[in-house]
Amino acid sequence: MLKVNRKLSILGLLIIATLLISFSIKEIDPRLQKKIDTAILATYEVESKVLKNVIIPAEINDETPASLLENSFFEIYSNEIKIGYLYLGEAPSMKRKFDYIVLFNTDLTIKKSKVLIYREDHGKQIGSQRWLKQFIGLSTDDQPTYGESIDAISGATISASSMTKAMANVLKSVKILKEKQVLKIE
Prior knowledge:
Largest sheet: 5 strands, antiparallel
Strand order of the largest sheet: 1-2-3-4-5
Structural class: alpha+beta
Number of strands: 5
């Protein structure tokens, strides 16, 4: 009887460990991946691309204000030449979260930001390129501030403020990656 209980305990631990591992790796939804691919190809004006996941050591990830878990930060290559970086994140809106990307040049300035999936009826204005273009050209030394360096949006205050804070956190995080030499800038 003791051997059976021990085998069941070991089996139970293995199942729990497998579940924890499978839930800790963030998979990119195919619909989201298609939007990411389209944005990369259009922004960098290339016909093909390869994304290489940048693995961030846990101790460095703990120092960054933006989460840099697996499947959130990538190097972008076209024809085996690095053309930039991509950050995939989520930010809160009034009741739900929205998905966005930040595309960087190889010198870590922002080339483009894009809201990929917005899940609410109000605040969709943050997805307009007219508003998002304010982030283009910002570097890791810049700190965008809602209502000051970034224009406010009437009717989208929560989402626009959230997106601005998210962008500031991404820039701070990328600066840390640069300082810790996780990113090798040519």
